[in-house]
Design goal:
alpha/beta; Isopropylmalate Dehydrogenase; 2 domains; 12-stranded mixed sheet; 12 strands; 17% strand; globular
Amino acid sequence: MSKSADASPILITMGEPSGIGPEIALAAFDQLNGRIGSRALKLVGDAGIFAGHPEALIPTKAKVRALPGKPDAANAPAVIEAIEIAVKACLAGEAAALVTAPIHKAILSEAGFPYPGHTEFLGHLTGAPRAVMMLASEKLRVVPLTIHTPLNKVPGAITGPAIIETAEIILEAMARDFGFAAPRLAIAGLNPHAGEDGMLGAEEKEIIAPAVAALKAKGFSVSGPLSADTLFHDEARRTYDAALTMYHDQGLIPIKTLSFWDGVNVTLGLPIVRTSPDHGTAFDIAGTGKADVRSMIAAIKMAAAMANARAANARAG
């Protein structure tokens, strides 16, 4: 796969083989005629799953026996291997970006997989100090500070250093990967009405506001802590380029309401480009032909745009 930086391929992993991942990967591949701009699309997974496109296949050694809608922990080695193959190729410069089809966390956990999701596993594989999950569309880009954290553990996971580090990763990515010369970041509070001056919680005064002040002192364009219930309407979204929220649903409910079919999961803070459709395995419709391919196509297009932006920055640098 040795290619020039601007023509290296985009890799698409199969995800959970009993879900809709393989079929939307194949549907997107076909709709895009196997290419996105100057870049070929490559399919990473079991040879049987992607049997229709041997010319584009990067096969796993582990095999899959999959029935639609019936996940099996025996398929976990192939699911994991596909991700590992793709990450290795991206790190080696043999591929420009990785697009991952959805995995099923519970079935991987049953097989002994120690990570709660793609984001954490990709952080491990790439050695990234902090992998950050962004959900992005044309209408909204949002990052939850805490990702797959039980709600009752969220307050204890919110720290000033975590906010500052995550915000810096977002702002760097907005400039490097999304083309914003001077990105603006809105930072939500944790409590109702951003704590109401301490009446409804102290996290804003004691943790979030000092972190915002520290970011401003570094020259970043940030605002907050802001009340989450007024952060996502049309006029508010025009005042920032990305939003940092304190927990999973605080940020994901707005973007899935606004952009359910064209939202993209992007992992920031990695040395590679990674995107994914913003939906799950959808076992209930797997194999029925009802799966919607729009989010996968949006993920491929965003991966290509980000890869092109990184290549342009590398040339300019």
